[in-house]
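Fold this sequence, please.
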Amino acid sequence: EICLKDLEEEYCGIPLRKTDPVVSYRETVSAESDRTCLSKSPNKHNRLFLKAEPLEEGMAEAIDDGEITARDDIKPRARKLVDEYGWDLTDGRKIWCFGPDET
C-alpha cells in the first residue's frame, strides 16, 4: 500500500488503477528449519517456541479439501493425523487453527 502510494504520488504523478492480485501468494516450507523461533505475548507471560517443517505428502490437499479442519474434534483429528500421516499423537492434539482463513 505504501509502495503504491509513493509510486502514484512521487514517481508517476498520475492516478493509478489498483485491483486485487490475480495470482494468490503462498509460501512453502521445503525442509525443516534449523532454528527455533520464540514469540512472546504482549504481557510477557506466555511464550511460543516453534520450528517449521514440511507437511507430509497429501496432507495439504486434505486440509484444502476440508477432510481435516481446525474445527474437528481434537481426539479423532489427532488419531487421523497419527494413522494417515505419521504424526505424534500429542502434536496432533495441539492444533488450534490453520492459517488466517479459519479460527
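The longest helix spans residues 74-85. Helices lie at 2-12, 59-64, 74-85, 89-92.
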